[in-house]
Every structure is written in C-alpha cells, then in structure tokens.
Specification:
Elements: E1 2-3, E2 6-8, H1 21-28, H2 34-47, E3 48-54, E4 60-66, E5 74-79, H3 89-100, E6 104-109, H4 129-142, E7 147-153, H5 155-170, E8 177-181, H6 187-196, H7 199-219, H8 226-231, H9 235-246, H10 252-258, E9 272-278, H11 289-293, E10 298-303, H12 320-330
C-alpha cells in the first residue's frame, strides 16, 4: 500500500529462518555471502581501478571505479557505512548487481576508510560533508554521463542525503537520484541503540573503530597515542574524547545534532529520493520521522523486517536491496 510516497513494504519477504533482525544484520556484512556472488563479482573486480579525487581544499578521497566495455549512460556512486569500505560485502553485492545491469559503478570511500588513512591529516567525523560534496562535484565535472545516481548505506546514507541536497544548492551538475538504505536520521537514537543493544554490535564497531585509529596514527602519530586508543573501554568515553579533541563541537550532543536529518531539509530538492528502512533495525531504531520524509519527490519504503542493511531474501544470501535499487533506477 502507498500513501503520499509512503510504502509499507510487501516486496521483502525473507524465507523461513531468515526473519530474525540480528540474523539479517549480521548477514549483511558476512563473508559467507561472497561465494554465492562470486560469478557476478568477477566482471566488476576485473574492470575496477583505484582512483583518487580532490576537493577544492585539497582533501583527497579514494574510490574504486568500474567502467563497462562500452560507454554506459549512467554512473552509480556508492557510499559505505561507518567503518565500511568499497570491500564491504553489502557494497560489493550492490555494486556487482548494478554493473551486471550495464551501469558504470564508482565506490567512494569516505575519509579514513578503505586504504585512505594516510591521505588527509584530520580524523574522519560525520561533519566531513563539505569534502564529500566537493569530491562528488569533481566526479560529476570529470565524467560524462546522462544520469548520476548516489547510493548510501547507514551513515553513508546520511552522507548521501545531505550531499544530494547540498549539491543542488551549490553545484552546476547535480544528481538524478539519491538512494539511501537504513540511513541514520537521529544520531542520538542510533548511538543509544548501539550502546544499549546486544554486545555483539558494540564489540564489532569498537574493534573496527580502534583498528582504524591505529592505522591513522601510524601515519599521523601527533593526533593520538596508541596506548590512548587501547585504553578506551566504552563507546561513550571514546566518542566524547574524539568529538571534543578532533571536531569543532563543544559537546557530543551538539555533534549529533549537527547531522540529524529532518524532512524539511529536503523540501526544495528537485531530484528523486528513495529511502528504505526496516522496522526491526537494531541500529537505526524505528522513528516517527520515517513517515514524515515521504512526499512529492521522496519515496519511503518501510519493511517489517530486514535488520540493519540486511534484507537477505533467501538461502543463497541474496539481498532485496539490490533489486530494490535497480527498480528505482528504472523509474528515472
């Protein structure tokens, strides 16, 4: 059913045994999925090249860019979630699906993600939106496609939505669509869900965050001490220290408020926006604002199940996300 751009999803129906939200969330990034996508993945990997892009301030972001043998009419730009990268399983699944359907694909790594820890001195944080917009603008200026589509997952979905809106205000070339899967809209709620939820998520993200910080200080030892990183024993302590020491914000609350999304931010956006959330997401709690985003050019699909960026449909560990995106792209 659909009312004013809001869809209660009937498209995603996981097979028996796959309905649990934690199963869905864990399978999103599970290496077990790779053998099932191996055949589809090979053409993407064979065509992929590393390419770096700079904004006007000299900030550098890394990407992996795959072009079709003949000129494609559209470019799909994908942005991973926090502590993900172009190598994340969910990214490779969607990228290989898009490439198999004739699109050129560019997987963009945010600062300090993928192999980019040595590229820029300052640490990554969620207000690095200007450099993301600047790099996206450079990509659009440097390439010639009839259509450009941006796709983001989780925190990358938040970046994609903010970047899409900013590009319409600032840039001469803009995106045809912005597509976000389980985007963070209320950072405080997401932080609370991670802190208070199952320990497996907290351990996973803290381990990946600490690993990233160690990679960073190997190149910029003046930023932090290795023993300082190892000593962080809670997400609260880690977040507070890094926000106060390495962002312009005076409190964690101010930092979270700075990238909270509200529907009014997108009222004047002309391009199409497609949003996919699940009601049982353990990381992005179901929020009343989900319904408020639906509107003139914004379509929201809200699934009963799917976990966090999972939407695993069957025992071959295929994700509904890939078909959902292809269907949205065909509408443009």
């Amino acid at each position: 059913t659909q009312v004013s751009g809001m869809t209660q999803s009937r498209g995603f129906r996981p097979l028996p045994g796959l309905g649990n939200r934690h199963v869905q969330s864990i399978l999103a990034s599970a290496k077990w999925r790779v053998p099932f996508m191996q055949k589809r993945l090979q053409p993407l990997l064979k065509a992929s090249i590393d390419e770096c892009w700079s904004d006007a301030e000299g900030n550098v972001l890394h990407s992996v860019y795959a072009k079709q043998p003949s000129q494609a009419s559209a470019l799909i730009i994908l942005i991973h979630g926090w502590e993900g990268s172009h190598e994340s399983v969910y990214m490779r699944s969607t990228a290989s699906s898009c490439f198999a359907h004739g699109y050129d694909v560019l997987c963009l790594n945010l600062r300090d993600h993928g192999p980019s820890h040595s590229f820029n001195e300052g640490l990554f944080h969620a207000q690095r939106i200007d450099e993301t917009v600047g790099v996206l603008q450079q990509i659009l200026r440097s390439t010639e496609y009839e259509r450009y589509h941006l796709v983001g997952f989780s925190l990358g979905g938040n970046f994609a939505l903010r970047a899409g809106a900013e590009m319409e205000r600032r840039c001469d070339k803009t995106l045809n669509t912005v597509n976000a899967v389980c985007p963070v809209i209320d950072p405080k709620a997401t932080f609370a869900a991670m802190r208070e939820g199952p320990a497996i998520y907290l351990r996973y993200f803290m381990k990946k965050w600490k690993r990233s910080l160690h990679l960073k200080i190997a190149h910029f030892p003046e930023l932090l001490r290795a023993e300082q990183v190892d000593a962080f024993d809670s997400l609260d302590a880690m977040t507070e220290h890094l926000v106060l020491a390495h962002t312009p914000f005076e409190s964690v609350d101010d930092y979270f408020d700075s990238y909270r999304l509200v529907p009014e931010q997108f009222a004047d956006v002309q391009g199409a926006i497609n949003l996919l959330w699940s009601k049982d997401d353990p990381v992005i709690p179901h929020h009343p604002d989900f319904l408020r985003f639906a509107g003139r050019n914004i379509k929201v699909e809200l699934a009963e199940r799917g976990g966090h960026c999972g939407f695993i449909s069957n025992y071959w560990l295929q994700s509904y996300i890939d078909q959902w995106l292809l269907d949205k792209l065909k509408e443009q």
